[in-house]
């Protein structure tokens, strides 16, 4: 196993960008990589270049993240300030988890935009768990107290699939839709993302390495391949739907006494944009996201 440093490839690509030349850089002969460590590009340079290259392909997905981010901020801040001792535990827990969703979404945005697909998917899987915890707890103070008092380091307070079913069931109770099939479809997104989180070879073998002429070539740092773009887009797109699952429950169960007309309008705008992203991904890659 050997790691080949691609200094010349990176610098040529940087010059190409500066010259507004979008032509793809040809792979450089491995003999040209023989440089001392002092000449290697920094990780910051690699991320800068990846950001420039990915900016256009990710443009609409980043716009979707911004809309979801704004939705989370408004959801969190719409309720008037109160003494925390007067608040229900379910409201406190939900607010705590909303804050995590905001930070997760921001981290996903940063990592995905700089070319880190595995890490973006890992954060997206965590965001799923958090958002569906909000959905499952809802306004159930007993469930919230169980969450607060949870002391097992090896497990979550509730199984992720149960949280998924509970959340979807609440949100479809007045609609003639088989919630179980919807829950299974949503959970499948989570399972796909967890493949990246757990280093499943079905995904891991597509990222960071290439096999060339019998050699194992490992390239740490940002990626700029079709597989990496697909996984980053999938992570961003899916995270938007995860956010909406938690926000929908929060609005329905914690903001019933407030005027949420504008918030619901913003939610619907995010939903419509999400649908466009899904169709965009299907047009580019088909419906198989594995």
Features:
290 residues; three-stranded mixed β-sheet; 11 helices; mainly alpha; disordered N terminus; 3 strands
Give a written overview of the molecule.
The chain is mainly α and 290 residues long. The protein has one domain (2-17, 51-148, 158-285). Helices cover 64% and strands 3% of the residues. It has eleven helices and three strands. It has helices spanning 7-18, 43-55, 59-77, 89-113, 117-137, 141-148, 160-171, 179-197, 201-204, 226-254, 261-285; strands at residues 2-3, 209-212, 215-218. Helix 7 (160-171) packs antiparallel against helix 8 (179-197). The two termini are 27 Å apart.
Distance between the termini: 27 Å
Q: What is the CA-based Rg, rounded?
A: 22 Å
Helix content: 55-70%
Number of domains: 1
Could you say which overall geometry the principal axes of the C-alpha atoms support? globular
Strand order of the largest sheet: 1-3-2
Give the DSSP E fraction (strand runs of 2 or more residues): under 5%
